[in-house]
Amino acid sequence: MGGQFLVIDGTDQSILDNFADINGPAILFPFVREIIASLTARAGIPTVLVQPLNFVDMAQRRQQSQPSE
Which UniProt keywords apply (predicted)? Predict the structure, then answer.
């Protein structure tokens, strides 16, 4: 699954990075969860329920684990 988002010219790179790391995935993730649950239920196998993710926490942990420049 993918998403298309518009970018306004002149948008600061840090805002775009934040959106790409946190907001974009957070917007798309509920739809991905629903598709996975629906497909597995319709396939006749036990429904797969993907747990919610905290994208803010994931981004913070990734930043902490990267060496400083």
Answer: Protein transport, Translocation, Transport
- Residue 6 forms part of a structural domain: no
The stretches in the chain having pLDDT less than 50 are: none
Q: What is the CATH number of the domain that holds 41?
A: 3.10.420.10
Which residue, 36, 31, 22, is CA-closest to 2?
31
pTM over 0.85: no
Alpha-carbon span 32 to 1, nearest angstrom: 7
Q: Go through 34-55 and write b for each residue having 16 or more CB atoms within 10 A of its CB, e for each that does not.
A: eeeeeeeeeeeeeeeeeeeeeb
